[in-house]
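# nightly structure sweep
# worker-07 picked up a monomer target from the shared queue
# config: single-sequence mode, recycle default, output format = structure tokens
# input follows
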Amino acid sequence: MTGFVRDVLGLRSSHLDGDWAIFPLESGRRDYFEIYGPGHADERLMTAASDGPIAAFAVDDLLQARAELEAAGTEMVSDVIWAAEAFGNPAFDGFGWFFFRAPDGNVYLLQQDGLTPQDGAAPQAD
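# output follows
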């Protein structure tokens, strides 16, 4: 899959090892196409609750979005993961995500990038 993304889609990797590849996207400073191999075991980044691809959706307020999903009875697969805490890097302040299982049985991810437009956040639709 890494070769396809690099050679066919034309994306350049910013991180590449046997079990994890990151391809930054032009849509925003924290927008990525990521590939996790079967040996990748960091539950903060890729949950074992899924055996297939996981689509990630960006939200402005991660905690509010989680509360709305919980109120609707959605199964939470992980706690909220704040990148600055998880990786000990304050540059990731405000960047967080969590995994949930939708009614279709698949696992998805919601994330907030914590960036302002001045920081390089993608513009939001009105």
